[in-house]
Amino acid sequence: MLRSLPIVALLLLGSCGLETRGPLQLQLGHVANPGSLTDDSAQEFARRANAKLAGRAHINVFGSSQLGDDQTLLLKLKLGTVDFSVPSTVMSTAVDAFGFFEMPYLVEDREHLKRIREEIFWSSIAPRAEPKGYRMLAVWENGFRQITNNRHPIVRPEDLAGIKLRTPRGRWRLRLFQSYGASPTPMSLSEVFVALQTGVIDGQENPLSQIYSSQLHEVQKYLSLTNHVYSPAFLAVGVERWESLPEDVRAPIVEAALETQDWVLSSAAQIDRDLLAKLETEGMAVNAADREAFVAASQTIYREFGAEVEGGAEWIERALALGSH
After folding, report:
1. Mean pLDDT for the stretch of residues 2-11
2. Do residues 213 and 116 make contact, with C-beta atoms less than 8 angstroms apart?
């Protein structure tokens, strides 16, 4: 009996080791700050996914560029060193087709976005990411983009002449603001506050959620409601990493990702209304822009996209036809 005790002890220790090994740990990295729609979406997705995974795996969210900026996260997705990310504009630097969502005044509202998502994105655009090493799991929201600056209100495109404006990395956004007469400067979101504070740039363009959560209103005077681009945010994973996960892990993640897709769109409009009121209360001078003037100044970029990206002209035509007018 005594001689059998060490064997029993080893067996007990071994079983304890197996029990404490825990679920597969998965990382979701993004660049947005706490309180942004992107971070709220990532947290909601992780909550839903972790409940469905029931201990088989656990998704941990790292925001505020903790795991790298947008470009770094795209590389880490391909390498499999980060499991998920939530890229927005930066996707157009990796896959030309995603420049579709850089087209100005293409998306009228969120109901229009739903039709574009179902009839154009999933069938024609998302598959273009696969050969580049990315799998799209859901379309979330970054939002309708507005312009802030410290010089003067932006009412018409010519008001942007000479404005040093931060943009995300993406050639179509650069071309758009160059065509308006601005001096666009690509820059990581994490660098924007200091660049505005020190006068390196005059302004920037972002959805209200990003403006408020990044505290950009503290270093910007004017908020011009241009709604010039609607930016989706995509829940993305590297193709090789995705295919390495067990099916009983992948299926709950997809289910949670698509549930969050609906949650985001149902929450976003109210968030915009609330944040606009806060930004006005906290001292920003808010003005409406001349939409017709901006639309008229944006037509050339449609033709350029259609000529340079295979299928682009057809996608734009179909998207406009899906609108309400």
Report:
1. 44
2. no
Count structural domains, the chain: 1
Token output for 5: 């005790």
Instruction: Say which DSSP state 128 is in.
Output: G
pLDDT tens for 70-100 read 999 999 999 999 999 999 999 999 999 999 9
- Token pair belonging to 160: 């942007």
Q: What whole-number distance in Å separates Cα of residue 230 and Cα of residue 107? A: 6
Could you tell me the residue range of the domain that residue 151 belongs to? 23-321
CA–CA distance, 160 with 171 (Å, rounded to integer): 18
CA nearest to 263, candidates 27, 28, 46? 46
pTM for this structure? 0.91
The answer to whether position 16 is within a domain reads: no
Here the CATH number for the domain that contains residue 239 is 3.40.190.170
C-alpha of 314 from chain center? 24
Residue type, 116: I
Residue 9 token pair: 């002890």
